[in-house]
Amino acid sequence: MFASIEELSEKLKLAKYVIDEVTLKVVFLAARMRKPLLIEGPPGSGKTELARVVALAAGTQIERLQCYEGINEEKAIGKFDESLQRIYLSSQSGTFGGDWTSLRSGLHTLDFFVEGPLLRALQYEAPCVLLIDEIDKVSKEFEAELLEILSEWQISVPKLGTIKAKSKPFVVMTSNEERRIGDPLRRRSLYVRFEHPTIERETKILGLRTTTQHSGLHGELAGFAHALRGYKLEKPPSIAEMLDLAEALRLLEADGITAVMRDVLLPCIAKTESDRRRLLLRDGFESLVFDTRRYCEELSGRGVSA
After folding, report:
1. For the chain, which has fewer Cβ within 10 Å, the N-terminal or C-terminal residue?
2. Band of the pLDDT at 306, cuts 50, 70, 90?
3. Rounded to an integer, what distance in angstroms lies between the CA atom of residue 279 and that of residue 285?
4. pLDDT tens across 214-249, in order?
5. What are the distances in angstroms from CA 244 to CA 118, 239, 268, 272?
6. Helix, coil or strand: residue 4
7. Please, what's the b/e burial string for 209-237 (b: 16 or more CB within 10 A of its CB; e: otherwise)?
């Protein structure tokens, strides 16, 4: 997908993605070695976004399997379209001549199969990006079924047979650590740990991804995000939510965050009732604004442009 680390770096810059040198090299190695990338970390730390920008940088498609408790093979791999099979049977009723074997074989082909994201990912002529999002939500049994794909680059489907990959996708698996991923998948993957970004890194992200021309606001928002994540909220804000907050401030024509803006900003930053109540406590929001100012001063003191 990428001829060199330099090429990957330049393409990620064009996609406005801020990445550190170590993660950059690990992504490059995963692409060249055809190894899945397992990314663990808290929700909202940018795990899914990495898969999206790699697909953008490579100029390819992304197939996403959104995992959830109880997901099965039909959702992930696909299933036969029984309605279409019945139509085919009706159309062949006067011509099959009693050759049930041939008729049965004709029914069990990809022409009558509704492909799920895992199977679609193996059908691309050129490698796509396969995102297996929140893999920690699936059962150990389903996790074991992924091993054939990630080890042999093929899928075995009853009545359909074994389908080998036309190209090997770049696989990104994300985990919020609700359940520990098993060792067999870990052994087959390159592992990356994501945390919420530092103030410096989030300042760069906001500078690249927001439309506001007020550069001082980038550092202030990054400091505010850092303060919120240290406030022990039930749902700390994600990078995406801070980008939304930046857009809200732009639309409000605000040059910064002040304590009097609390009520109008709460819908952007408090996404549960317990977090909302916590931020409505006396001096709660004011203390966050105070911490934001302190972080911005520290940022300026380190010589980092906000």
Report:
1. C
2. very low
3. 6
4. 768 899 999 999 999 998 889 999 999 999 999 999
5. 32, 9, 7, 17
6. coil
7. bbebeeeebbbbbbbbbbbbbebebeebb
Delimit the CATH 3.40.50.300 region(s) of the chain: 5-77+116-193
Strand pairing class (170-175; 37-40): parallel
The topology (CATH level 3) of 5-77+116-193 is Rossmann fold (3.40.50)
Nearest to 253 by CA among 211, 207, 305, 288: 211
Q: How far is CA 39 from the centre of its chain?
A: 9
The model's pTM: 0.87
Q: How far is CA 139 from the centre of its chain?
A: 19
Is residue 37 within 8 Å of residue 25, measured between CB atoms? no
Residue with tokens 């919120």: 228
Which amino acid, one-letter code, is at 280?
L
Binned at pLDDT 50, 70 and 90, residue 298 comes out as confident
pLDDT tens profile 117-139: 999 999 999 999 999 999 999 99
CA angle 134, 46, 233 (to 5 degrees): 85
Least confident of 62-76, 101-115, 220-234: 101-115
d(CA 169, CA 34): 8
CA angle, residues 105, 107, 108, in degrees to nearest 5: 70
Burial class for 157, CB neighbours closer than 10 Å (0-12, 13-18, 19+): middle
The residues facing 191 across adjacent strands are 38
CB-neighbour burial class of residue 302 (10 A; exposed 0-12, middle 13-18, buried 19+): exposed
The answer to whether the CB of 43 falls within 8 A of the CB of 54 is no
